[in-house]
Amino acid sequence: MDAIASVASTVAAPLLRHLTYVLLYTTYLSELEVQVQKLRRQHKELKHTVEAAKRSGEEIEDTVHDWFARARAAVEEAQAFLRQEDRERVGCLDVYSKYVNSQRARSMVEAVREIRRETFDRVSYRCGLKCNVNSAAREYVALESRNLVLKGIMDVLECDEVDFVGLYGMAGVGKTALVKELAWRVEKDGLFDVVVMAWGRNSPNVGRIRAEIADGLGLKFDELTEVGRASRLRQRIRQERRILVILDDVWGKLDLIQVGVPLGEDQRGCKCKLLVTSRDLNVLNSSLGVERVYRLEVLSEDESWGLFEKRGGDAVRDPSIQPLAAEVAKSCGGLPLLIVTVVESLKDKDLYAWKDALEQITNFDLEGCLYYPVCSAIEMSYDCLGSQELKALFLLLGSMGNGCSTRDLLVCGWCLGMHKHVDTLADGRNRLYNLIDNLRAASLLLDGQKDSVLALDVVRRVAASISSRVKPFFTVQRNTELKEWPRMDFLRTCHHIFLDWCYIRELPEMLECPNLKILQLNIQGNCLRVPDNFFVQMKQLKVLSLGGVNCTPSLPVSLGLLTSLHALYLCKCMLENIATVGEITSLEILNLEKSELRELPTEIGQLSNLRLLDLTDCSSLGVIPSNVISSLTSLEELYMGNCNIKGDAKGSKRQNVDSSLSELRHLHQLTNLNVQIEDTSVFPRDLFAFGKLERYEILIGDGWNWSEVESGNYKTSRLLKLNLGMDPSILMDYGIKILMANAEDLHLAELKGVQEVLYELNDEGFSRLKHLNILNCGEIQSIIGSTEWAYHDHAFPNLESLILHNLVNIERICSDPIPAQAFTKLQVIKVKGCDRMEYLFSHSMIKHLSELVEIEISECKFMTIIIAEQRQEDAIAGQTDKINLINLCSLTLECLPSLVSLFPESSINATENGKDFSSQLFNDKVEFPNLETLKLYSINVHKIWNDQLSYFQNLTTLTIDGCERLTFLFSDSVARKLVKLEHLLISSCKFVEQIFVSDENMGNLQFGKSAPAATELVPIFPNLETFVISDMDNLKSIWPNQLDKLQSLESLNLWYCMALEVVYEIDGVKTSQGRLDIPLRTLSLGHLPKLKRLWNKDPEGNIQFQNLFMVKATKCQSLEHVFPLSVARDLLHLQVLEICDCGVEEIIANNQGEIEAALGLVFPKLISIKIFNLPALQCFCTGNHHLRFPLLNKLYVVACPTMETFSKGILRASILRKIYLTHEGDQCYWEGDLNTTVRKLFNRAMGLIVKQDLGREVYGEYRTELVCDDMNLLMEEGDKHLEKKIQDEGFGML
């Protein structure tokens, strides 16, 4: 029974379970409907939570998204199942169907319950703010200058060594747009995992900046204190692996620790980098301490137009608007903010709106809406300047105008008391330079030289606008006419008047300006007289500048009333009696530069407060009375360059000059001195034996030109020039030794008794010297000799340039061993006429010249090498003989007849017969990877370089002239490396037959052998723009089959190449897409007697020269024609065509032997044609083609006797109205149209020849030759004039 029961239970249990599905069919369906309803309600409730999170800007968790997907799928499946059951229950279901559906329903119930049982810790999360906005929101336009800065910053951010980068530039220059673009790129490219950005604005707020960074990271602060929030932000930043924080537009000091921004990498591998933008460089460097700084400049003119055109679209391309649009873009000063503001406001406007906008911009209507964004930003920059002194200087610049000199700024600032706690002019100058640097750092001034100050026009106008509100001023632009003086009510309030070299018709009798502090009245044109009462109402005047006025016989009487005057300029004035100046005892600055004045009055000695006296270029000044100079005891600066002082007329010239110069020793406050003493015999001893002279330009001896001092290449504060040919004993003067020791720029000429410069002239090593120029010193043997002396480590440590001319006995610059610091800063060396030099640099010296930029060597007869080989003791010590001049940019070698190589090793190779040798200039022992300019003149080497050299890749300019032993210039291997070459000049290399030679033919080009024709030559330099070839007697080929490689050549000049027969060899030239465009713009040919054609065959449209602008050919007697027909069809930009003394029969060739249909040839820009002395020329084009010259207005036809017509086809030259018949253009002729005019010229010329022949028959050869001018005269005035001329010459019967 147990067994039966066990079997029954085993069978019954499964049967019962299956039966349950059938019995509970309806129950499972009902339960499924209930569970689906509950899931739908749960779905709806969770959806409300998700929507609330989205409204809060939060991101939804992925698990929630997954739940929604599974819930929707479960509901859809259950509903579909229930609908199917409803349809099936209409009939009767069999037991099996109920079983299957019941089982499926139960499974769905369990699945829905499982979904409903799922819960979430959180539905959403707060994420960091992304920087990946679209391009329109970034406001970035890809321009070359911006891309360079952007790439530089991205490269340095990728570098591990730099963590803190700064970018600065003036308001509106586009800093924000650039960093937005950078943020988007580095995040998109994965350079940083997270990029956050905050804005500093004009007053950096630590809390707000911290909050903006926290928003970018999705961080909410629970801390209540600033310190706690900074720590929390720091902790959050360190959770990222690589993070970039950008702080835009920071105006002042910002404590990054207070903000909560860590820099660099911590122990957990977090790398945080910071990029800060500002308008002020000082904020980045001093206040924040950035590691690398970039400046964003204003746009160039081309980039300004590119941005303007891109933002303006089709509106600025409208032909009626484009000229105005170009002017508007140019007037925006390269500021992207102003460009965008202007173009966005105008692009949908009519022409009158553009004209009004141009008027606003050119007149700087600062109140107009166009200027408002930029002006408000610049004014904010002014408001944030760190001191009142800076603000005062900025406003003074606004009133003085652009391009004012620092000298004028110093004088005005000094006299107005702008510089506080400054006691001397030297201190004031230093303060001024520092203030100018601060304004440049604040991006309110442009970078430039120290002697002038420049600002963008919009910046200067804003400064002027602010200044006019504070201290009204009046100014007129330089070199323009003052049409009328301001109203009287304005003049009464005016503080400054600047009329700098303007045209003024007359001066009023008096200017009522009671508040005037500065008056600049420099007049162009006629020398006006200043009325006597002109200054009566200017009692507060502090600075007066009169230029170009006539103050003879005496100065205006009212000048003596200016008791507050501190500075008086009388420049380029006609002066006679200036004794009145002595009455102005408050005067501190007196400038008489370039004025006509014969004598300095004794009264000048009464100016006890005078600090500066300028007599520069007072060439007519002959007398300075005794004791005048010595009475000026407060004098700090004295300028007497090009001033021919003769002293008091009572004594002898020598005594008086000696007295005037000797008075300088009494000026104990003197710190600046410019003086020229041509006669060394009157030079007083120990004149300069005082130590306060800080700045000087002193020329002693003859042969020096003061104008060269003012226009010199190097501006230094201490210049001394000595020519001691007349009196070498001056070198022993103690004062001269002091001046030499302190000089920054030293010129020495005709020294006697000096063999070694360093030891004999200054054994302390010329530690301050930057520039040394020695010429015509026949006894000097070296600059640094072998003498042992105590301070050898300080020999020329700061020397930047060394120039040696005509030192006929110098053998070397220095002897070994070279002092440790000698020449380490040398950048330029020029040597000329030093015949005894066999080499320029010793091997040990060249190792010191890491800063060398330029080498120039010329006319050294016995120089065989440039760098001597390594000493044996150095080689034993293990020093390498490899030399790398990494900064050398320019190398010039000229007239060195003995030179065989730069470096001696492997410079000479024996030839096959063992008798001749070949020399190579460059080898692999010396490298200069950044060389840009190489010039070789009359160098007798056989070869310039070998195929393995790889350090000429940056060469841009190459000149080879008079190197007569060269047989070729470039092999394949060398030419491939000159990828940056832009300018190439080749001249007077008489053995060169080919410029380019293939590598396989190199073995045949040994000295004395000619090369076979090359079949496959090298790619021509891809960046070559200018190519000049001249005086190449044997040159037969330039670039056969390589025309397709000249993708940048714009100018080609060929002169005096006697063997050249063709310019362009186009056989085998490869063209892409069926056509090759050549960028050539100018083609100039001259004295090529064998030149037959420019192209060896017609390119037939496969090669086009559409960019040709000018074509000139002279003395090409074998030239058949100028242009093939296919080339002529594409001359769309040709403007100038000149053909002289050539054998051409036609300008445009007609295809001989072919039936050519009439073509229309249009020369849309051709304005000038000159054809001179072309005896074989028949017409411009012999083919029956239609020619049109819409802009041709100058046509010269001179001495073209066989030219019967201009063109055989239809001809149109709509604006041409005359043909010039002489080179000078003083005779012309016209008969209605061009062809008719040429035919009549020809017919009358034939008539003239007939009359000449008849004259010969009657009178023989007696006076029957009539010059070409007679024919021109005939054309102009008719046959009657000719008959009269013939009668006058004895041919009356004709």
TrEMBL record:
The protein here is known as: AAA+ ATPase domain-containing protein
Q: Does the keyword ATP-binding apply?
A: yes
The molecular function GO annotations come to:
ATP binding
Family affiliation: Belongs to the disease resistance NB-LRR family.
Keyword Kinase attributed: no
Disease resistance protein At4g27190-like leucine-rich repeats domain location is 746-861, 1021-1143
Give the species: Flemingia macrophylla
Coiled-coil ranges (or none):
29-56
Span of domain NB-ARC: 154-313
The alphabetical list of record keywords is:
ATP-binding, Coiled coil, Nucleotide-binding, Plant defense
Name one matching Pfam family.
Answer: LRR_RPS2
- InterPro entries membership: Apaf_helical, At4g27190-like_LRR, LRR_dom_sf, NB-ARC, P-loop_NTPase, Plant_NBS-LRR
Question: What are the GO BP annotations of this UniProt entry?
Answer: defense response
